[in-house]
Design a protein that fits this description.
Helix content: under 10%
Number of helices: 1
Oligomer: single chain
Mean pLDDT: 85
Radius of gyration: 33 Å
Low-confidence stretches: 15-25, 33-39
Structural class: mainly beta
Order of helices and strands: HEEEEEEEE
Length: 197
């Protein structure tokens, strides 16, 4: 009985071919490189006069603009000049540039975003509006709370106001009464600029 001496060699060749094939199998492609970070959308600063008192310090940049619509609330009270409509608070909805409601503006110059972030503001300066029948333009310094759109916001400007002013006087029959005056305004929100110290 004859022995096929080629059989071990054929088996070895088959094993070698399998090893070569395994090594030749292409590696899976590397994951795609991450996209470069997108720059935050630019928000133009409002156009102010040469002698404005509500300019934001140069190391801060505008990052968000919202339109506020609602009411300024006044109450008829005694003042040093007699009965007058005394300011109480704003009640306004804040909307984005597509008119989608995204938050609220309320008592003590607070701002609350629907994402949970909020601001507490304090008036730093004001300019008279171009029309005396409109609310003053304001500069507010703010303290931010929570994570979200208002996070890190340090200043807010109220500009482009329309309405919101009460009559000059109220009468004895108005004493204690509340007056709600419709208004609208743009609110510009500022954070420290990139690289600012």
């Amino acid at each position: 009985m004859s022995t096929d001496r080629r059989h071990p060699t054929a088996a070895a060749s088959a094993v070698a071919a399998l090893l070569v094939a395994a090594c030749a199998t292409p590696s899976p492609p590397p994951p795609p490189a991450p996209s470069p970070p997108q720059a935050a959308p630019t928000v133009p600063a409002p156009r102010l006069g040469w002698f404005t008192k509500i300019k934001v310090p140069a190391e801060y940049a505008p990052v968000l603009r919202l339109r506020g619509r609602g009411y300024q609330v006044f109450r008829c009270e005694d003042s040093t000049e007699g009965l007058a409509w005394v300011y109480q608070l704003p009640e306004a909805t804040l909307a984005d540039d597509r008119a989608n409601p995204v938050g609220r503006h309320g008592a003590n110059f607070t701002f609350e975003h629907d994402d949970g972030s909020r601001l507490a503001g304090k008036v730093q300066a004001w300019d008279d509006a171009p029309d005396p029948g409109d609310l003053r333009w304001l500069l507010l310094s703010t303290q931010s709370y929570g994570r979200g759109a208002f996070e890190g916001v340090a200043y807010v400007q109220r500009v482009n106001t329309l309405g919101g002013m009460p009559p000059a006087r109220c009468t004895a029959s108005d004493r204690g009464q509340v007056l709600r005056v419709e208004f609208s305004a743009d609110f510009i929100f500022y954070r420290a600029a990139a690289g600012a110290k």
